[in-house]
Amino acid sequence: MSTQLREGNQIFEFDDNWQVNVYDCVESGYRDINKCVGAKSCDFIGVLGADTLALMEVKDFRGYQKKNDDRLDGPLAREMAEKVAHTLAGIASGARRKCNYLPWRKMGELLNAPSKQVLVILFLEDDLGSQNIAEWKAMLSVQRKLMRKNLFWLQVEIAVISESISTTQIPGVVVSSLPGAACHTP
Fold first, then answer.
1. How far apart are CA 47 and CA 15, in angstroms?
2. Which residue stretches of the chain have pLDDT < 70?
3. The dihedral of CA 181, 81, 15, 162: what is its sign?
């Protein structure tokens, strides 16, 4: 049975190979970490198969491009690094507390096993994605490099993907926009 999660104006459908949830809606260390001033977290967390921990963030700048242009020059990658660090702290807390809602222990094991994969995914949408695909692909590549630079300490795989390029860039995940998603009022 697949899992559907909504974030903003997008729907994310995860196949049966995923155990995934909205991170800030689960009983975990999230609530304690969130009490820290300035703490932020990724939108979704999950386990893919038996050997991949995934931390996922959704950013939809469609209709807000001018407001967010400066964020694409570095601040977004730094924000992602902070969210990843805080989310990892919440996962560690959940694993230590033996929470039963999500597979916290499994996530902690994956995080601590160098032979396993940790995948950080940024689902990014922007007006440019519907206007100039070549430019948008280049921007996604730049975001990936900026995130890699900010997350060098973690030795993770990084994916920056956009529905406007392909809806199936992560195994077992299909992304779709709700009607009118690209029609935000700036």
1. 12
2. 25-37, 65-69, 98-102, 128-131, 167-168, 180-186
3. positive
Neighbours of 107 (CB within 10 A): 25
**Edge-to-edge strand ranges of the sheet holding 3-7:** 3-7, 10-14, 173-177
pLDDT at 185: 45
User: In this structure, are residues 63 and 183 in contact, taking their beta carbons and an 8 Å threshold?
Assistant: yes
Write the CA distances from 160 to 62, 138, 180, integer angstroms.
16, 11, 23
Beta bridge partners of residue 58, listed in sequence order: 123
Q: Give the residue from 10, 134, 20 showing the smallest Cα distance to 62.
A: 10
Q: What is the pLDDT of residues 148-158, one digit of tens each?
A: 999 999 989 99
Write the DSSP symbol of residue 59: E
> What is this structure's pTM?
0.87
Output 100-108 pairs: Cβ under 8 A, ≥24 positions apart. 101/21, 101/26, 101/27, 101/28, 102/19, 102/21, 102/26, 102/28, 102/45, 103/19, 103/47, 104/28, 106/19, 106/47, 107/45, 107/47, 107/53
Are 90 and 64 within 8 A, CB to CB? Answer: no
Residue type, 78: R
